[in-house]
């Protein structure tokens, strides 16, 4: 048994389940679903490899007949469009006869937008839409792609205490320790594509892969920001705005260098900052980035919100989300 919880708690739990599907659920969004009856979880699911089964289908299979009269929490509106890969989740839910469905996000995909909710309500099921920060964060890549036509962008920076990313000579291996580097690889594993600038590519020849045991197959597509010649096995874009051409990517992880970081910030294309700060002082080293076009300090305030902080060995990790109107 699990003690009584509120709707937001259950949606947050569904969002944590959803993270298991990222990024292998592509091209579908990573959705999480939890079925609750008398404060007990009787079914749970998340979008699986290649997008099927959907989260609701997996959770309903686990719950079986007990889903009748239950409450179903799902991070995204159940799909309502026809597919040759199986019945819609809205139809599956109608057949299961839950008492109530609580969802966090209305699907922006025009094939389903509002239709899933309408189908459930016509069948007599109570449907409530409850915005959830946790669910929105878990769907960030899908929502950004649907609404802005580009992937969700995380900019990663490994810094000294005085804001340097390397010695004056360019040496940067390693500013942070093993724990921070392992955490960075876990973030790579949750991304569809990873990007560096042409200067970093030529100077460091980075592998841009995932080197965590058991997750090597999660290595993302490699992308280089450069006006140079094409590189075998690597996608080339000439400017940050061309990330909309990375059609298969919901999540883009930008790792540098300073020029790429500045260009993405200047174009207002960074949605999240992942900062790893090591307890070292370099002095006279290479700064994280140069001019990003900031005209005054007033416009700099209120742009970023701290959403996560943790200690990784001797290093500090902080994540900031871009605050957009």
UniProtKB/TrEMBL annotation:
Keyword flag Repressor: no
NCBIfam families with a match to the protein in the record: eubact_ribD
Pfam family membership, one: RibD_C
Family: In the N-terminal section; belongs to the cytidine and deoxycytidylate deaminase family.
Binding residues annotated for Zn(2+), in chain numbering: 54, 79, 89
Native source species: Erythrobacter litoralis (strain HTCC2594)
One annotated GO biological process: riboflavin biosynthetic process
Gene3D superfamilies, per database record: Cytidine Deaminase, domain 2, Dihydrofolate Reductase, subunit A
Keywords: Hydrolase, Metal-binding, Multifunctional enzyme, NADP, Oxidoreductase, Riboflavin biosynthesis, Zinc
Any GO MF annotation of the entry: 5-amino-6-(5-phosphoribosylamino)uracil reductase activity
Binding site residues for substrate: 172, 188, 208, 211, 255
Listed EC numbers: 3.5.4.26, 1.1.1.193
Pathway stated in the Swiss-Prot or TrEMBL entry: Cofactor biosynthesis; riboflavin biosynthesis; 5-amino-6-(D-ribitylamino)uracil from GTP: step 2/4; Cofactor biosynthesis; riboflavin biosynthesis; 5-amino-6-(D-ribitylamino)uracil from GTP: step 3/4
PROSITE patterns per UniProt: CYT_DCMP_DEAMINASES_2 (PS51747)
Record's catalysed reaction(s): 5-amino-6-(5-phospho-D-ribitylamino)uracil + NADP(+) = 5-amino-6-(5-phospho-D-ribosylamino)uracil + NADPH + H(+); 2,5-diamino-6-hydroxy-4-(5-phosphoribosylamino)-pyrimidine + H2O + H(+) = 5-amino-6-(5-phospho-D-ribosylamino)uracil + NH4(+)
Reported cofactor(s): Zn(2+)
Location of the active site: 56 (proton donor)
Binding site for NADP(+): 158, 174, 200, 204, 257-263
Cofactor note: Binds 1 zinc ion.
The protein's role, per its UniProt record: Converts 2,5-diamino-6-(ribosylamino)-4(3h)-pyrimidinone 5'-phosphate into 5-amino-6-(ribosylamino)-2,4(1h,3h)-pyrimidinedione 5'-phosphate.
Domain CMP/dCMP-type deaminase as annotated: residue spans: 5-128
InterPro entries cross-referenced by the UniProt entry: CMP_dCMP_dom, Cytidine_deaminase-like, DHFR-like_dom_sf, Eubact_RibD, RibDG_C, Riboflavin_Biosynth_HTPR
UniProt-recorded name of the protein: Riboflavin biosynthesis protein RibD
